[in-house]
Design a protein that fits this description.
The chain is of the alpha+beta class. The chain contains 11 helices and 4 strands. Strand 1 (5-9), helix 1 (14-26) and strand 2 (31-34) form a beta-alpha-beta unit. The protein is globular. One of its GO terms (biological process) is glutathione metabolic process.
């Protein structure tokens, strides 16, 4: 019997984009169910009763929540295809560390830079640029974060790529100018069909940001 795979997601979600990239890299076919996170649907509540958030990956009726956990799950279940996480325990620990860094340090200023004003915006921009610099330093001259192979950390950060343009617009900075190695890395990642098909359109994200800014009272 074929696997039943369903993804509850919302089109602008950087977290859902990660899961879509991973599923595409593994060649996994799935049913996509657009799920507005502001509307707690019965299915979302049933499948993620603790956080009630997207994305939720449902595999044969069983829910897997949180995008980084989903990446590991996808890697282990469909293990006969492309490998997302390195097999070496040390390299695996480093990949988990940097993916965790992205969600714990990078995420907050990445949305505050477009959702806030005044001193809060200035502080968010300063913090975001520091984190971009840290991520660029870690990348160094490697093609990908794991070395020669596109993997876990690349997927974790490329989930944010569709939002980069909004960060630049409202934060008034240029990633290409300030972080050339990161820019080269993003262009390399964008050569992958899995990435291109998973990402939301950056201009559509900016339109969405304008709606959210009004909601947050930032314009």
């Amino acid at each position: 019997m074929a696997d039943e795979v369903i993804l509850l997601d919302y089109w602008p979600s950087m977290f859902g984009m990660r899961t879509k990239i991973a599923l595409a890299e593994k060649g996994v076919k799935y049913e996509y169910k657009e799920t507005d996170p502001w509307v707690k649907t019965p299915l979302l509540i049933e499948m993620n009763p603790i956080h009630k958030k997207i994305p939720v990956l449902i595999h044969n009726g069983k829910p897997i929540c949180e995008s980084l956990i989903q990446l590991e799950y996808i890697d282990e279940v469909w293990s006969d295809a492309y490998t997302i996480l390195p097999s070496d325990p040390f390299q695996k620990s480093q990949a988990r560390f940097w993916a965790d860094f992205i969600d714990k340090k990078f995420y907050d200023p990445s949305w505050k830079v477009w959702a806030t004003m005044g001193e809060e915006l200035v502080a968010a921009k300063k913090e975001l640029l520091e984190h971009f610099k840290t991520l660029e330093t870690e990348l160094g001259d490697k093609p990908y974060y794991g070395g020669e192979v596109f993997g876990y950390v690349d997927i974790a950060l490329m989930g944010y790529y569709s939002w980069f343009k909004a960060m630049e617009k409202f934060g008034e900075f240029s990633i290409e100018t300030e972080f050339p190695k990161l820019t080269t890395w993003t262009k390399r990642c964008l050569e992958r069909e899995s990435v291109v098909k998973a990402l939301a359109d950056s201009d559509r994200i900016i339109e969405y940001v304008h709606v959210m800014r009004k909601k947050f009272g930032a314009e």
